[in-house]
Design goal:
Layout (H helix, E strand, L loop, with lengths): L2 E3 L5 E3 L26 H20 L3 E2 L5 E3 L10 H4 L2 E4 L5 E4 L4 H11 L7 E10 L11 E10 L5 H16 L7 E7 H9 L8 H8 L7 H10 L4 H11 L4 H8 L4 H16 L5 E3 L13 E7 L8 E5 L3 H4 L7 E7 L2 H8 L10 E7 L5 H13 L4 E3 L6 H10 L2 E7 L1 H5 L2 E6 L5 E5 L5
The structure holds 6-bromopyridin-3-amine (4JN).
């Protein structure tokens, strides 16, 4: 549609709005494909989940940050064949800028750290809960948006940072009733890959691509993996050895294969030592096949998985020591994780751990006739100023309707403003659970 300029100088499409020209036009009441509405019941569950994300972040001493959902496309144009890049929700805006709906939060966080520069002192412990987007062909019917909880530690090169992050996720799981028999963490380090590839002449800029390909193990046939590895410059010998190493499930075995003295082994040993001190040893296991699908990880990587093996990864993260410098920032070490809002809810459903969340209101206030509506408003205000929740009946309704509504919103008590009581400065109170009813002076309502 051509554009027009409205009174506020804003341009808009010519197509008549459903109401503006008086012609009713039935709109599609569903949200765009792959997106969700959050009506009250779903919003209560989302708020419960996000409240737990924020509570854990708070007790770990992290500060909340946020960024625009819309970012420059340049933040995400990595050339490592990542799915996150292939599905970038990007477009050209009216100023001819290439922009994108963020598919993840880490690049925005890195951008803000660089922007803040010397004005912030390291280490930074930041967390965010934000909506992330992908444009996926709807053939697979998957979602196009989800909310992610991220926690990041910026400026700590030691593996203590990764151990702290995993501890925060374990704390979250415990907080919502998930135990080590429900979920675990598979842990590895990309330095394992580096040490294997190091003994073969693999082009340096292929490392990210190799990781992205390896991350597809168990998702696509191994012959396809081998084909893609050859395409990025690996020899058959290198591929065979790499696949061998990736099948290792114990640190002792890995040390035999890699030999001692490498950083991969020392990092992982340190992490498992710290895990024991944090008290979450029975939540973690070494698994050399874990590389994660984001190109920028450089060290420890981990992912939370459901032990029944029915669900996709619950969360994932790792060290990304080079990301800030690739954005032109200083060489600042960093690590973090992302925790989506979808798989965890599927897990809670599976385990019967979804919380019972219903609307709770302390008072429903109702005028018994319309010339007492003002009186009812003043009673509602008095209660609200004391911090009480009040549902004020806003129009003349039969009592039967009021009682039905009181039950629906789980009101604890019904306050009726009637003329004879009001003459005496009183209102009548009915405790809805017991049926007890009494009159009370308005000033003594609490
Ligand atoms: N990165 C990303 C964004 C949105 C969804 Br849904 N899944 C993954």
């Amino acid at each position: 549609a051509q554009s027009q300029v409205d009174s506020g100088g804003r341009t808009g499409a010519l197509t008549p709005s459903p109401v503006a020209d008086g012609v009713a036009q039935k709109i599609d009441v569903n949200p765009p494909k792959g997106t969700r509405d959050f009506p009250p019941e779903e919003m209560r569950l989302r708020n419960w989940l996000f409240h737990n994300f924020r509570e854990v972040s708070r007790i770990f001493g992290f500060e909340e940050v946020d960024f625009p959902v819309l970012e420059s496309e340049a933040l995400f144009v990595r050339k490592a064949g990542e799915e996150i890049r292939d599905q970038l929700y990007c477009f050209e805006d009216r100023g001819n800028r290439r922009v994108a709906l963020r598919p993840e939060l880490t690049p925005s966080l890195a951008r803000l750290v660089i922007q803040k520069g010397k004005s912030v002192s390291l280490p930074l412990k930041w967390f965010a809960v934000g909506q992330c987007w992908r444009y996926e062909r709807m053939t697979r019917g998957r979602r196009r948006e989800h909310y992610q909880w991220n926690m990041d530690i910026i400026g700590v090169p030691e593996v203590t940072a990764e151990a702290e992050l995993i501890s925060s996720i374990v704390t979250f799981f415990k907080k919502i009733g998930i135990t080590a028999s429900d979920v675990g963490f598979k842990i590895s380090s990309r330095k394992v890959l580096q040490e294997v590839l190091g003994s073969y002449s693999v082009p340096e800029n292929s490392f990210g691509k190799v990781c992205v390909i390896i991350d597809k193990l168990e998702k696509i046939p191994v012959d396809e993996i081998k084909k893609e590895l050859k395409l990025v410059g690996m020899s058959e010998v290198a591929i065979e050895e790499l696949l061998q190493v990736l099948s290792i499930k114990s640190l002792e075995k890995l040390e035999e294969v890699l030999g001692g003295g490498g950083e991969a082994i020392s990092d992982l040993k340190r992490l498992f030592f710290l895990a024991e001190k944090f008290g979450y040893s029975d939540w973690i296991q070494f698994d050399a096949s874990i590389v994660r699908g984001l190109a920028y990880y450089t060290g420890i990587v981990f992912e939370g998985f459901d032990r029944e093996g029915k669900l996709r990864a619950i969360c994932g993260g790792g060290r990304y020591d080079k990301l800030l410098s690739t954005f032109g920032g200083d060489d600042i070490p960093a690590c973090g994780f992302g925790f989506g809002d979808a798989v965890i809810v599927e897990l809670l459903k599976e385990r019967g751990l979804l919380p019972e969340l219903s609307q709770q209101v302390e008072n429903i206030v109702c005028a018994l006739d319309q010339d007492l509506q003002g009186a009812a408003a003043s009673v509602a205000t008095k209660l609200r100023e004391k911090g009480q929740t009040v549902d004020l009946v806003l129009e003349g309704k039969p009592l039967k309707w009021v009682f039905k509504r009181a039950a629906r919103i789980n009101a604890q008590r019904l306050i009726l403003v009637g003329s004879s009581e009001w003459q005496k400065g009183m209102v009548s109170v009915k405790i809805l659970s017991s049926g007890e009813q009494y009159e009370v002076e308005v000033g003594k309502l609490e």
